[in-house]
Amino acid sequence: MKCFNHYGGYLCLPRSASVIPAPEPPITPTETNPCPLGYEPQGDTCVDINECEREEHDCQPSQECINTLGAFTCQCPDGYRKVGTECIDIDECRYRYCQHRCVNVPGSFSCQCEPGFQLAGNNRSCIDVNECDMGAPCSQRCYNTYGTFLCRCDQGYELGPDGFACNDIDECSYSSYLCQYQCVNEPGKFSCVCPEGYQLQGTRLCQDINECETGEHQCTDTQTCVNIHGRYQCVDSNRCQEPYVQVSENRCVCPVNKPVCRDLPFSIVHRYMSITSERSVPSDIFQIQATSQINNISAMLVLARAVSGPREYTLDLEMVSVNPLLSYQGNYQTSSALRLSIYVGPLWRNMLLIPHPQFQSMPTAEAVKVTPVGD
């Protein structure tokens, strides 16, 4: 190889090669510019040359050409920085410009917020979103919190598994003691109902209705209305049977001038009472008492076995009085009877219901001898 000198270096060519120098370009005379560099004459004055418009600049494609008086400059656009002769994108996210999340894009960046927040007016900060004012899917009540929201339910409802829907609570299924008789579930609440013949006392208890006092009975003028548990009974106003005659309400007397009355109680007083079915036993249900100048004698009518209703029992409670002062004439004694009609109410789910106030106290009567008459 043969070495040939060259501008700024050299060439290695085969020895048989020859170098033919290019002819020198002809020198053409140029017009003389009377204006300074970067200006051109215009009439009698010199005006600036806009190298950027004429594309007479050497700015890189990533640079912007900025014309100046008599010259130009090459600058990087916003969001870029100059490295050597090139413009490289600036990663603004490295400088933590955003409160939550920063997304870098060529020449710029954007801020994004976490769910439950939105960009503030400065496009960098994040402010809480009130989801409750923006149609949060809560079926009843919505409470805004920082970055999110909570759904809550009205009384009588519970929040569903999705956290939005409110489902009715069946209070009746939680306890059998909410109501004295029967519990009825309703949307968001419950109510207590009573059996026929009873009315609700307060919100949970059942009390017997005295149909005889309220006039809600169908007894005739010749009958007497007797209030019993959950209902009423119409009885004849005059229940005296021969040889007895009625002397007052519920009282019958056997006249002494009738021979048949000698072996019968002098008087019979009719009384009525009511008890509930399946009453616990033994249970005292009626007290009888006799008062004299010598001593006081009392006895108790006891329920020995459970009874179920509706059913009616009638018992005669006889009081026998012996007068010792007249013993010289023989054993002088008189008797009177209390005819007690006991009405057993129907059985309602083995629940103890509140009787009417007339049933609150245990009846008493004057007598010393108890004689059951029959069912």
From TrEMBL:
SUPFAM superfamilies: Growth factor receptor domain (SSF57184). The keyword Repeat applies. It comes from Etheostoma spectabile. This is EGF-like domain-containing protein. Keywords: Calcium, Disulfide bond, EGF-like domain, Extracellular matrix, Glycoprotein, Repeat, Secreted, Signal. Residues 48-88, 89-127, 168-207 form the EGF-like domain. GO terms for molecular function: calcium ion binding. GO terms for cellular component: extracellular matrix. GO terms for biological process: epithelial cell differentiation. InterPro entries: cEGF, ECM_structural_protein, EGF, EGF-like_Ca-bd_dom, EGF-type_Asp/Asn_hydroxyl_site, EGF_Ca-bd_CS, Fibulin_C, Growth_fac_rcpt_cys_sf. It is found in: Secreted, Extracellular space, Extracellular matrix. Belongs to the fibulin family.
